[in-house]
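Researcher: Watch the backbone:
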Amino acid sequence: MDANSSQPLTFYDFLDRMRNPASLDLVRAIKSFIVSFSFYAANPENDSKKLQDFLVTMEDAIRDHPLWVGATEEEIDSAMEGLEKYVMTKLFSRTFASSPEDTKVDQEISEKISLLQNFLRPEHLDIPAVLRNEASWLLAEKELQKINAFKAPREKLLCILNCCRVVNNLLLNAAMSENHIIAGADDFLPVLIYITIKASSHCANPPQLHSNLKFIQLFRRQEKLVSEVAYYFTNLVSAKSFIVDLEAKSLSMDAVEFQEGMEAAREAHKAAGVEASPALDQTATSARQMDPGPSRKMLFRETDSKGILVNELMVGGLSKYPFMEAEPGELTVGDVETLLTTYKDVVLKYTTLCRALKRLSISNSNSKTESPVLLVPPPHTSPPQSEGK
């Protein structure tokens, strides 16, 4: 669903129209814009201005184009969403975390979060007991964890929106069922901060929180960063800033206790062989380019066994193969490395499984000619020794 309306996006309709010979002038303009980025060194602010200007120009061109004669505002908006997704997917490697400074900030935030995860508790952020709902928190964490699986600014923003909506629903439910008076941002922000820290603890790779927020802010269509979306996005930016500046006086915790917690976390990391500044793994951002949408737990009731099964499969197994539901038109040159790695992984597992099945077949065949296994020892014999003795 769109982050600003109930109308579904039709990205593939946009691609189909771009394949129409009548759209040749638009296609040439899009390709020329993408190629022009290779002529200049990366500069996030300048790149953002170029993109925003280009999108404004293209919106005028689309409105005046014969293929969109009589189109509704929703159809024009859908075309612009498709254009943004297409262009930013092509330019992702150039525009995401494009400066060493961004990479450094991501590393510093990731390192600090990894330390805080060892000792930070809800009470340290003054989160009321009525809002400490582990099920809701876990659902919100999973929504936020999806952010690195997408390349388009809108899709990354949807992950934030879904996460924040879970938190907001938690607050509303608490207000209705527990007579808890909602304190607005005073209740919302601490929960979001805690979820952001906990979500990062379950990621195989650093969350690149700074780079994701900067990418959305620079390359999402500015007219879309308004209303509910802007409120939730701003709250996550505030959560990031809080984490960056976090110290003992930011928490309901004694300064000595805070320092001891940080030192104990550092020692625990050293003992576990964790590097002080974990390397960023960019392959996490080469995942499939489907709309993130809400979690399947939000789309299916728990009694819907089909929905639950699909969700478990995606979380537990198929998520390792990010191109399972991708379409040919979505793949880019930057996906080749990830595709090759995934292909090798699949082939290795397949051949290993075939060998195991072959050995199992031979073993079963031989067992037919052998004496039956004696399950009960005959009289006057000692019982078999247990393994390892």
